[in-house]
Structure formats: C-alpha cells, structure tokens
Amino acid sequence: MRDRIFRSGDPFAGEHLVRRALDLLRRHGAVLPPLEIGCSKVVPAGGGVGGGSGNAAALIRWARRYGFASLLPEETGELGSDVPFLADGAPLAWGGGRGERLLPLSPGVQAKGFLVFPRWVSCTAEAYGRLDALREACGLSQELPDREEGERILSDLRERRVVGLLPNDFVSVSESLHGEYREAWALAEWAGALAWGLCGSGSGWFVVLDPRADATSLGQVLGRLSWVRRLVAWEG
C-alpha cells in the first residue's frame, strides 16, 4: 500500500511538498505506515504566504507530536526556507541563514486585516532573478535586514502606531510589473491602516488594521477591485 494524498480547492503548483516531507521524515528515521493525507487549499499558489510550506510543516509537526520523528531546523530547511519557522510553531521569530536559524520574538500584536491575492501569481525564482537584475542596474546594496528595525516595527504595532509600508526588497520588483500595488498602498493609507505590504516575494499583499477599527468599508472596496482574485479577512 502506498501513501495517498488527496487534494481539493485551488490547484497545487509544482511538486507537492507534503510528499517531499514524507520522504524527508522517512530518510531521518521516521517509521511511518502508509498514510492517507487530505490537503484543502484555500489560498492560491504563488501568493507568497507559504501555503505549500505550511502543509509540509503541518505534517512535520504532527510527526513530532506523536513521536515519529523530531527534525532539526536545518533538516526541515531542505524543503524550503520558510518551512523551519512554520514547523517550529512559534507565533513570531527572527530568521537567519537560509531560514533555519530562528530566534523567537515576543508576541502580543493584536490586530486584524486582510490578505489580498491578485489575479497574477509570482514565481519565487523569477522574482529573485528580477531583484538581482534591479540591484545590479541601480547599484542597490544587498544589506540584510536589521533585527532592531523589526523590533521597532513590532513595538509600534503593539502601541497601535502607524508604520506604513513595511520593508520588503521585492516591493520595487512587484511595482515595476504591476502598478496596481501602488493603488493597494494608497487604499491601505486611506483606510487608516497601521501597516501594509507585500507577502514574501508576492504576489499577495496584506493590510494590518487596529483591532478596534471597522473593516467593513475597506473590505467592500477591496472586494470590488477587478484585479483582486481572493480576499481573506483575518483577526488575531
């Protein structure tokens, strides 16, 4: 009997990370019976939110919880740079190296907002290629983000101070391809959001609102945009 993976919802893109996670667990000594795994995909592929990585991380956390295997971050990192964080389970962390060096950060940001997925998708490899080309053409530095800056942003959000557009090197790349992102930032500012920005290397983007704010008007405006494919409200 072989493993069986059932898929529903939005289509998956590329190699299924759950199958790769199964292979990884068994290579590191997990004695797993043949499994039937159901994956319900509710966010589009190519959105920058780590949906596939999250599926793989869920399986790794399940295996750890039930004593089949406990993988190190550098081992889960073989599946992707965001898998170690998602498999770790910490609500917030500062990532170093290729994502395998994790330093937990204090939670405590109460907020709500929206995840917005446009009608186009972003291929991570292509996005990195365009970023490298932009850096070379414009002479941009490749300095690593500063942890203190991240701590300051978190502190401002905890105090419900407006931060604005969050730093992300891929913003310039995305704006050069799709001017709609500038419209997105303007809408977030109009709504009085605390922060907004790009999800990973795109294509999704997010808006962070004060938990006391009425998100109805912004949700209606975003839902009417012709270039928006899916809108997901969140609170936490």
Defining key terms:
five-stranded mixed sheet, 9 helices, 9 strands, alpha/beta, globular, two-stranded parallel ribbon, 236 residues
Count of individual beta strands: 9
CA-CA gap between termini: 41 Å
Structural class: alpha/beta
Oligomer state of the chains in this structure: single chain
- Listing every helix as H and every strand as E from the N terminus to the C terminus, the arrangement reads EHEHHHEEEHHEHHEEHE
Q: Percent range for helical residues?
A: 25-40%
Rounded Rg:
19 Å
Strand content: 15-25%
DSSP helical segment count: 9
Which strand order does the major sheet show? 6-7-8-5-9
Q: What is the general shape?
A: globular
Largest sheet: 5 strands, mixed
Give the arrangement of secondary structure elements:
Blueprint: E1 4-9, H1 17-27, E2 36-41, H2 51-65, H3 73-76, H4 83-88, E3 93-96, E4 101-104, E5 112-118, H5 124-138, H6 147-158, E6 164-165, H7 170-177, H8 180-190, E7 195-198, E8 205-209, H9 216-223, E9 228-235
Parallel strand pairs: 1-2, 6-7
Antiparallel strand pairs: 3-4, 5-8, 5-9, 7-8
Helix pairs in contact: 1-2, 5-7
Q: Could you characterize what this model shows?
A:
This protein is α/β, with parallel strands linked by helices and 236 residues long. Helix 1 links the parallel strand 1 and strand 2. Helix 1 runs parallel beside helix 2 and helix 5 crosses helix 7. The longest helix is centred in the N-terminal third of the chain and has 15 residues. The protein is globular. The termini are far apart. The mean pLDDT is 90.
